Known about the structure:
- The chain is mainly alpha-helical.
- The chain has a domain at about 15-75.
- About 45% of the residues lie in helices and about 0% in strands.
- The longest helix has 17 residues, at about 35-50.
- The radius of gyration is 13 Å and the shape is globular.
- The model is unreliable at about 60-65 (pLDDT under 50).
Amino acid sequence: MTDLEYSGKFVLRVPRSLHRNLCRIAKQEGVSLNHLCVALLSCSVGVLAAGSAKPAEYHPAASSAPQKCRKRAAQPKGRQPRT
């Protein structure tokens, strides 16, 4: 599949409690819910791609999220995180 086949948008159904917690975290960090979710998903994909965790073992929205993921999610809009 090529990049032209992906719109960059998809609908994701989550439990209300997760939605509430993600909104709370985004507000605390001063970022949008979308920005937080993109950062957490990006970090999770990186961890999974590196083979250091399996999907069932890794929960990026939990308080045990790796520090690098939490820092990346906390970056204000428009700023690229340093790697």
